[in-house]
Amino acid sequence: MNTKHYDLIVIGGGILGTFHAYHALKLGKKVLQLEKDNYPVGSTVRNFGQVVPSGMSGVWFDYGVRGLEIYQEIQQQFDISVRNNGTVYIASDDEEQNLIHELKAHYDTLGYQQELLGKAEVLAKYPAIRDTYAKEAIFFKQEVSVEPAMMIYRLQEFMQAKFEGYTLMCNSPVIDCTPTGNGVEVRVSGNRTYQADKAVLCNGYEFKLLFPELFASSGQVISKLQMMRTVPMPEVALEGNILTGLTIRRYESFEDYCPSFKYLTTPDHYKELKEWGIHLLFKKAVDGSFIIGDSHEYADVAHFDDLGFNVKQHINELMLKEGERIVNFNLRDMGTTWAGYYPQHPTEHILEYNIEDCIHIRTCIGGKGMTASAGYTEASMKSILGH
Question: What is the CATH number of domain 1-83+143-219+348-386?
Answer without folding.
Answer: 3.50.50.60
